Amino acid sequence: MKLIVAIVRPEKLNDVLEALYKEEVRGLTITLARGHGGELESVETYRGTTVKMALVDKVRLDIGVSEPFVERTVQAIMRSGRTGEVGDGKIFVLPVQKVYRIRTGEEDVEAVTPLV
Amino acid sequence: MLVATALVLLMTPALAFFYGGLVRSKNVLNTMMMSLASLGAVGIAWVVAGYSLAFAPGNGWIGGGAHLFLNGVGLEPRGSIPHLLFMAYQGTFAIITAALISGAIVERMRFGPYLAFITLWALTVYAPVAHWVWGGGWLARLGALDFAGGTVVHVNAGVGALVAAVLLGPRKDYGRQALLPHSVPFVLLGSSLLWFGWFGFNGGSALGANASAALAFVNTLLAPMATLVVWMLLDLARTGKATAVGAATGIVVGLVAITPAAGFVPPMSAVAIGALAALPSYYAIQWRSRTRLDDSLDVLAAHGVGGAFGALLTGVFAARAWGGTDGLLSGHPAQLARQAAAVLATASYSAAGTYALLKLVGLMATMRAGRKEEGVGMDVPQHGEEAYTSGEGAILVMTDRAPAMDVQTREGRP
After folding, report:
1. Which portions of chain A are predicted below pLDDT 70?
2. Mutate which of B29, B107, B177 to disrupt the A interface (most A C-beta within 10 Å)?
3. I need a surface site. Which of A61, B68, B121, B315 has the fewest CB within 10 A?
4. Among the partner residues A11, A42, A49, nearest to B410 by beta-carbon distance
5. How far is A20 from chain B (nearest CA, A)?
6. Where are the alpha helices (DSSP H) in B56-155?
7. Is the CATH code 3.60.40.10 the one for domain B2-364?
8. ipTM score here?
9. What is the residue-averaged pLDDT of chain B?
């Protein structure tokens, strides 16, 4: 099993979710996040105050998957989340020691396999 | 009349809240600015030329140039009020009518071309139609009734909105993703303030504190009440729940429908007009949301359909005893035909005029925002501001370089 953590643009989230759905990746958690990935800051002005927004809105996805799903999940996010400009985000694949499904007590691969 | 003018002016900020609540949070400033900016752009265009084109003596189709730059508009009476006040009152109508159109093109039209468009629209579409009906033009001579602007304001803006939505095309996410209102309380605030301001819109159209104004005032109270009740019942019947956005929409539709009739029909007829008007607009919205027509905030359904229906019902319910010409129910079916002629003429002219203007503006500038701009929302690329920001990660810039340049470079404007 792996935990896939992806940081994507909020305006691309719907495309990413759609791509993941098509790849039959069903269980995931999203968090609204702010971060900086080297993109140019946007400049905003409020009366006399001009600021550079150094932190940009991002969305973080946490997806626990079994081994056969790792590559297709990564590829789906990569394909759907890309605009080609700096700031598209990152995908991290982390090893997972143990997974439990709280409702049933199922473990590991069963726990990340969606119900049919 | 001073108070009525101020009330109508308030309707434009109210519209900004109504529309602003209905869009996504990344577009709320742009949407609200589309209404607010009309106060400046259309307001100035009105005093420069619009008023003259609408109300100076001319032919049956358009006013003359006698009042350009407010020439000859002074403190002398025009009807029962000072000429200057009459000009100001009519100006607030032009402002909100142009702003109404923005509801059809929110979340995708660039701000500069939009400003150019509504300014030209107020001069070349609104002003002539106002002249036809209120400036002694051909519809006035025909005897078509329009107390406060059912055709001049609402059919005119509704049809203009339809054409604008078609020419601009749907938002990139339209029909693919749910595009939900970001602040329903804003929508309720906006529609409530619209109702409040509408007392000036309809009551003031009597152009004096008289019996006709009292009738228009009471009818403006009653008709939206009836629409609100019917709208909630329709919602209940369809989904089992009365929605807040629906209630806000119902109020606006009721106000639109009673506008042409306000000073011409007895109060119980106003209740009937309000109740009946809910039906076509309600089903127009249901139908529209299943099509590719991205009239984003349903300007056509609320204002076009509501205004046309209200104008026709004016021909049904109008009564001489209450200040109108006798309508169908008083045994005078010809009035209904005159109303239909006014609706058709306004709709045709508005469609043609809006089409020509948008083509013209489109030749000079790119009207549509780029896909990326649409994705991040219009607020930051177009205005360099966010509506809701915590300020985290904002670094103070001490230089006085023009900030808009950086934003443009970053957004890679098409």
Report:
1. 116
2. B177
3. B68
4. A42
5. 15
6. 83-101, 111-121, 127-134, 138-142
7. no
8. 0.79
9. 93
